[in-house]
Known about the structure:
Elements: E1 27-32, H1 47-53, E2 61-63, E3 72-74, E4 82-83, E5 89-93, H2 116-127, H3 146-156, E6 168-172, E7 175-179, H4 187-190, H5 201-207, E8 221-226, E9 231-236, E10 271-276, H6 280-288, E11 294-296, H7 302-305, H8 314-318, E12 322-327, E13 331-336, H9 347-356, H10 359-366, E14 371-373, H11 398-407, E15 419-424, H12 427-440, E16 447-452, H13 454-462, E17 468-473, H14 481-484, H15 504-514, H16 519-536, E18 539-541, E19 543-551, E20 555-556, E21 572-573
Parallel strand pairs: 1-10, 15-16, 15-17
Antiparallel strand pairs: 2-3, 4-5, 5-7, 6-7, 8-9, 9-10, 11-19, 12-19, 13-17, 13-18, 14-19, 20-21
Amino acid sequence: MNISKSLFLLPLLLVACTRTDPRDEKAVHLSLPARVKSLDPIQGNDLYSIIQSSYAYEPLLEYHYLKRPYELIPRLAETMPQISGDKTTYTFHLRSGVRFADDPAFPLEKGREITAKDFIFSWKRLADPKNAAAGWWLLDGKITGLNEWRERAVKSGKADYAEDISGLSAPDSRTLVVKLTKPNALFLYAIANLPTAVVAQEAVEKYGAEFGQHAVGTGPYRLTENGGGSKFVWDRNPTFRLTPYPSQGEPGDAEKGLLLDAGQPLPRNDRIVTQVNEESLPAWLGFLAGKLDLSSIPKDSFGQAVPAGGQLSPELTKKGIHLLELPEMDLTRVSFNMADPLLGKNKLLRQALSLAFDTGPLIKTFYNGQAVPSMGPIPPGIPGYDPDLKNPYRDVNLEKAKTLLARAGYPNGKGLPPIEFVAVAGGTSRQLTDYIERQFAPLGVKLKIEAFSWPEYTKRVMSKRGQMWSFGWIPFYPDADNFLQLFYGKNAAPGPNDMNYVNSRFDSLYEKARSELDDKKRVTLYREMVKIVIEDTPCIFGVHRTDHYLAQPWLKNLKLHNFAMDQAKYLRVEGRALR
């Protein structure tokens, strides 16, 4: 989401803990490698906030947990929408009996049933410029009248929530009608994402500026403890509607035991405990001691856990531990702040730095060989990916880099002031920052490292403070648009275009592709856009990663998913003794 997973951060880990609460027998204990900045769904542009918020908040649609290729299915919508012949009007019928969780925001602290008007309020809130919503890009330009409503709010200084929007109407409490500005092949993907989830106006008004520290949604869990962004306890929501575990999957799922819970109510566990664990070693040792349910594999332990050949070590295999692999469909990059007067105006400087950056040792050292170099923004597995793409500025060539640097006005780095590099503090992040710094040293280019906590890091990037930084991006939906929108001018920070890149030709093609319903024609447009980005070099393309996880034998129903951020609701713990 940026949604983003930082290049400097490890994937999701599960943390060791002493289990004394009886509910822990059916609990899943999780850890994140960075603090959560907000539980407000409209601010969901980083992986860690999105995972936590997804336990409580729900959009109209979601992805089927087991089916591949990924398939959209109804969530708060009763069925998939009715779509008009001209592909511009979508009619959604909401499920009956969906209630907001009980909370002091409501009379008698009893959550009420949702209505179509709740979605209109929630989407207006996403558009409200006062909120500077990180997820606004999902609806930007798509719904008739919504952008105009937003512009009037900018001019007046205050959004009028009582004002009607022509593209959003509620003929009755359970019917939501959405009119698009023009056909959009990706609209349903957009509204399957967290920032479009329904929120209660009562909760927004009660908690005000502190709304992001609460979670008053319709989902399977209620927030029962918030440790200031460093610990979260989520208990089963007693008013959650009857929602069954899926009864269909893909070939092989039944043999893996993934359909044993078919038809059983969700969630399949009683609680989730998430602890921020910025260092990986304690969690890894806890997993090896049998106190953890699931763990990624720290880079320094990968060779021990997964020796040559890609098979799990005999020691771990004897314990019944399972190895799972997930190609991330992601993109890492070192971003140039194009709003910076130095880097933004000197393409030759950017190209020189890109030519000096070698991802080979990076893949070997930090990703255990489990990644491929990125030539452009579209990763493998996403329509539009070109395996034959060659980026002339990703062919590591120090001599050519030095030539371009001299043409940029800085021979051997002379006259170039240290470049301010904004980074995440601690652990592997620090090691990766050092690696990046060493890549530019042969050019005589120096970095001025400024390291911050994850929330402060994202705050600085989204306010355009700094000259360079590094991000990773995992997709909201399985289409190349989700990666190309990172370069769309209107998505500049605080939107997902953290590079603040603007190219009018690119923007024109992007807008054309967004309304192109023919998949083949859209891919042709995507590839033309990729060429523009490569030549302008607003970032140094990094790698596309593959993640590996280890799961204990008592953790059931685990199937890694690229888009189901709330997949913990499907997990079941069986036969694990309290520790």
